[in-house]
Amino acid sequence: MSLRAMHSGTGHSPISALALLIVTLLYLGLMLSVAPEALARLLWFALYPIVMAPVAGEDYGHIFCRSLVVLPFVLLIGIFNPIYQTEPAFTVSGVIVSRGWVTFVSIVVRTLLSVQALLILVDSVGFVGLCQSLHRIGVPSVLTTQLMMVYRYMTVLLQESLDMTRARQARGYRGGSMSLSMWGSYCGQLFLRTVARSERVHRAMLARGFDGVIPVLKENKTWSGRDTAAVIVIASIFILFRWGPLPALFALG
Amino acid sequence: MHMSDALLSAPVAVAADIVAAGLLVAASLRIKKNASDSAVALMGVMGAFIFAAQMVNFSVPGTGSSGHIVGGVLLGALLGPWAGFLTLTSVLIIQCLIFADGGLMALGCNVLNMAAMTTLVAYPLVMRPLLHYPAVSWKVMAVSVLTCVVGLELGACMVTVETIASHITALPPARFFLLMTGIHLAIGVVEGLATGAVLLFVQRSRPELLQPSAIHRDTRHSVRGAVITFAVAAVVIAGGLAFLASEDPDGLEWSIERIAGTSELTAEHVGVLSQAAETTQQSTALMPDYEGSFAGIAGTVMVLILVWALSSLLIRSRRRQREGA
Lengths: 253, 325
Known about the structure:
Chain A is mainly alpha-helical. Chain A has helices at about 5-10, 15-30, 40-45, 45-55, 60-65, 70-80, 80-85, 100-135, 140-170, 180-205, 225-245, 245-250; strands at about 90, 95-100. In chain A, strands 1-2 form a two-stranded antiparallel ribbon. Chain B has a two-stranded antiparallel ribbon with strand order 1-2. Chain B folds into 2 domains: about 5-245, Arp2/3 complex 21 kDa subunit ARPC3; about 285-325.
């Protein structure tokens, strides 16, 4: 994803950022409430990213590949399930599949789906859109302003850090990790530069009439009837996935 | 230590989200009331500083491996507990939203485990009473290590409790606890050494930055605040878990019990209409016990593949139409 897309999103989302945030939270809440043993029911929730990704202007294959990055830690924790849950769950062509393997796959699916829903949200509305939504639903302005500030200065300070690394290398040091005392001086120096920069940033903010809230957060995006309808329809579908008889209807005999 | 959504049950995640939201509101109000305008800029840029500092690895003494800082205790020491808490929370939110590090529903747990335990508990209860600047080098290092170990171990305990309460993994609680606390003991020592190294540099170069300033005013009542906050947090989480573990009947069961005398329905309680509904359901469902069955899983996967194929076809045709136009 390009920096511009990360900043303001793909712009293809058919509903507002706030509506998509509500839908995503509903999705995560209901999807995570499915019991780990109910794998068929859980899989129904995969329809949301599969359908929503193209609607939001994203390729689902791309989203799926990006979601794989988070798997290692979850695999490490989940792999204990087949070891400790050995009672049989079902038989496939004479091979007994234990409950542990079902719950292990369930953990992997939950991980992938939750990350995919998050990626779709951030990709389609962008970080600024999300901060605006948080501001609109009453999240304290101190936090939303803080998020915007960290987001904006993250790349600036990374550049500052890269400059320091380049200067270190120009003085004959090789790359790689440094000793603890050298790292302390390095980060201490970076901290002093950060403080100096924050003083300049504060003066610049005051010069532009800063009153405690970054102006872009105040941009008012109206909530339309379309958003209400979309949230109701999508929430109903999620409720159907969670409690409806769909998995039974589509089970293969 | 970032927890993912997959390892948490919905009630545990929501309970932690509510507690974390309460702490964030408390921190925001305190900062708004006590901190100066310049603190907003400093906190913002300090969050970015933590990102930059995390990118630079250092050699872990005696192991041949390398590590990076997390920054909770460092932020507490440089900004004060509440401002440090808010700054580290903003870093965690950005890690979640932009780098998919930790889940959105698990954000509350991650805020409590990593930000609250280090900045609101370990720093005010361990580092602040023990360390007064200017201090000798060994004392700065020793207190930093102790504070980081306490903060990270508390976080590791929270992770264990949240994971076990969620009943998602089959890990035995005692082993998981030992695994988590063992790993985080080592991480805490390394984090403490790194935190101490930065504090020593700042003490040598700009000692005035470590003295109580406008932004540190928010720390005055932080110990009392932290204790009260965590008492409330404990009650809310315990309430959430008690709800999960409750052996009393839920609303539906209670109603049935009042009507039928027992919460377990037997054949004689079930009317003709209910029997007809059950028969219809049995006839439409190809596999009655579908949710954990192979047939149910396979059928659902087939449907998913079909929908994916259809949506891909639709996108391609839309792209062709755009290119044609």
